[in-house]
Amino acid sequence: IILRGEEICSPLTIEQAVDSRDSVAMALYSQCFSWIILKINQKIKGKENFKSIGILDIFGFENFEVNRFEQFNINYANEKLQEYFNKHIFSLEQLEYNREGVQWDAIDWMDNAECLDLIEKKLGLLALVNEESRFPKGTDFTLLEKLHSRHSTNPYYVKPRVVDHQFGIKHYAGEVLYDARGILEKNRDTFRDDILNMLRESRLDFVC
């Protein structure tokens, strides 16, 4: 930290040093990946009316023995993809059949809109995570209390009877219990200014 021209060094704990190391590694990986995609697109791009097919490759639905914030986000992304699939494969197609008078057998499909509302709507799970992350005294325990208090009656929310550090979601692919420990720390995962400034001084395009 530089204050009034004086540089002050503050040693990190082992945990803080590991977090800083991991943050740098993730940032470099993300920048490198984006740079590679940019170069590929520059090489293969065609005319403005050039037709192409996009490929999205993400993690599939995850349900491990211990599920953390990473699994929460991965499964949320899969819920959004399922919503898109439901809309374009089932809902819109069946409307088109009705408009054209096509005879067909109706297909029952699971609408995951209410599960997504639990996650992303106002005062949903993500909103409460972000809200608690902004409070200096916010902890994973206070977050869990708010989640239980706000959503325990939601049919897609699961409040475990035994384990006191978990909450669950009834996803389209099944029920998943998430470990709330570490969620706020990971959600607050911000880059320290000194690390950011160091990377900005790099001569490599994909780093700075």
From TrEMBL:
An example Gene Ontology CC term for this record: myosin complex
Gene Ontology biological-process annotations: axon extension
GO function term, MF aspect, one: actin binding
Protein known as: Myosin X-like 1
Keyword Ribonucleoprotein: no
Domain Myosin motor: 1-208
UniProt entry keywords in alphabetical sequence: Actin-binding, Motor protein, Myosin
InterPro entries assigned: Actin_motor_Myosin (IPR051724), Myosin_head_motor_dom-like (IPR001609), P-loop_NTPase (IPR027417)
PROSITE patterns documented for this protein: MYOSIN_MOTOR (PS51456)
Gene3D superfamilies per record: 1.20.58.530, Myosin VI head, motor domain, U50 subdomain
Annotated family: Belongs to the TRAFAC class myosin-kinesin ATPase superfamily. Myosin family.
Pfam families named among the record's database cross-references: Myosin_head
